[in-house]
Amino acid sequence: MWRRLSSQFPTLRSAAKSNRLSAATLSSPANLRPTVPFIARYFSTATGGVVKKVEDVMPIATGHEREELEAELQGKDILGINFPEGPFGTKEAPAIVKSYYDKRIVGCPGGEGEDEHDVVWFWLEKGKPHECPVCTQYFELEVVGPGGPPDGHGGDDDHH
Amino acid sequence: MIESQRHSYHLVDPSPWPISGSLGALATTVGGVMYMHSFQGGATLLSLGLIFLLYTMFVWWRDVLRESTFEGHHTKVVQLGPRYGFILFIVSEVMFFFALFRASSHSSLAPTVEIGGIWPPKGIAVLDPWEIPFLNTLIPLSSGAAVTWAHHAILAGKEKRAVYALVATVSLALVFTGFQGMEYYQAPFTISDSIYGSTFFLATGFHGFHVIIGTIFSIICGIRQYLGHLTKEHHVGFEAAAWYWHFVDVVRLFLFVSIYWWGGI
């Protein structure tokens, strides 16, 4: 879902606002990502420059739990794709929504403050930009995964 | 990494345990009613139901341990589920015990003529609250302190010390249960001796039952701690056991103050 920066980050929000005003001059909207998991901070306090491994933190970790810990230790946000946010998308600078597949359900909440509207859901497909019928926000899909249909048929998705 | 994990949730596999647990509960309740009304086969159905229920509890929790500890499905966000669930469970337990205390106060605050208009009822010899009952309030409180010691040991990564602390927790719990059994054996009244006996044994009996559940929970945590399942980053099962233990502690405090002390003087 295309969400603007939450109110917990006032400084970044003002940055987003100024970005929105100058969006026409940018080739693509800046992808603001203020979310630093607090765990990452927690884990990185102990050692200075040395990169910690999962084995140092939780030797018995396995599966998804291990992947999550590893990403946190490396400062990566593996689920950041789930919370797209940034300035209002226009035809010149569309709002880019990342997707593992060739299409993804996206919801448009409208602009900021007075311009906000009830979330309008739609399928955003590769190569087919979408304009919100309510607020004219412009969206484009960027495929970052294996592509193909998202229903799992023919893909390597094992539904876990 | 992204290829394998596209969300941080745990989509559980189909499991037979919800339906087997339901059938076990059905057999237990129907068997219990039949047994108490002296129907033929009541005891058999009750026993089968209880065995079925205990078996389901064992295999279901075994599956949860496999999914969390050995398959790593319990990510940070998944751990929130059992936490909220357990907090809600304890809230429901608080309401359950509130009803038992309410039954006691309802009968003691305005004693009826049938029991002589006094509390404790006429002819009932009560226990001295400052003997075994007071001691048996301090013992579970000390056990609660020991479980906090175990928690600090886990957070500090001192695995052996956490096992020792849990052994102390469980030992104190067993001493409590022993004293409580002794008290029941020596009590000058029974559950059928007026409303006093009924409310006394209902409230203290259900508390004792919860102590036994908490003791088993702590023993399981001790075994898992010994096996290295509990780490300083991830020990939801232990946290739940500790919350439960503190809850049982608080109930004992209320039991002592309102039923043993206030209700016995």
From TrEMBL, chain A:
Keyword Metal-binding: yes
Keyword entries, A-Z: Metal-binding, Zinc
Superkingdom field: Eukaryota
Segments traversing the membrane: none
Residues the entry annotates as binding Zn(2+): C108, H117, C132, C135
Gene3D superfamilies: Cytochrome c oxidase, subunit Vb
Any GO CC annotation of this UniProt entry: mitochondrial envelope
Alphabetized GO MF terms: metal ion binding
GO biological processes: mitochondrial electron transport, cytochrome c to oxygen
Protein family: Belongs to the cytochrome c oxidase subunit 5B (TC 3.D.4.11) family.
Protein name in the entry: Cytochrome c oxidase subunit 5b-1, mitochondrial
Originating organism: Capsicum annuum (Capsicum pepper)
From TrEMBL, chain B:
InterPro entries linked: Cyt_c/ubiquinol_Oxase_su3, Cyt_c_oxase_su3_dom, Cyt_c_oxidase-like_su3, Cyt_c_oxidase_su3-like_sf, Cyt_c_oxidase_su3_a-hlx
Any GO MF annotation of the entry: cytochrome-c oxidase activity
Subcellular location: Mitochondrion inner membrane
Bilayer topology term: Multi-pass membrane protein
GO BP term, example: mitochondrial electron transport, cytochrome c to oxygen
Residue ranges of domain Heme-copper oxidase subunit III family profile in the record: 5-264
UniProt name for this protein: Cytochrome c oxidase subunit 3
Similarity comment: family membership: Belongs to the cytochrome c oxidase subunit 3 family.
Organism encoding this protein: Solanum bulbocastanum (Wild potato)
Annotated transmembrane regions: 43-61, 81-101, 162-180, 200-223, 243-263
Function: Component of the cytochrome c oxidase, the last enzyme in the mitochondrial electron transport chain which drives oxidative phosphorylation. The respiratory chain contains 3 multisubunit complexes succinate dehydrogenase (complex II, CII), ubiquinol-cytochrome c oxidoreductase (cytochrome b-c1 complex, complex III, CIII) and cytochrome c oxidase (complex IV, CIV), that cooperate to transfer electrons derived from NADH and succinate to molecular oxygen, creating an electrochemical gradient over the inner membrane that drives transmembrane transport and the ATP synthase.
Gene3D superfamilies: 1.10.287.70, Cytochrome c oxidase, subunit III, four-helix bundle (1.20.120.80)
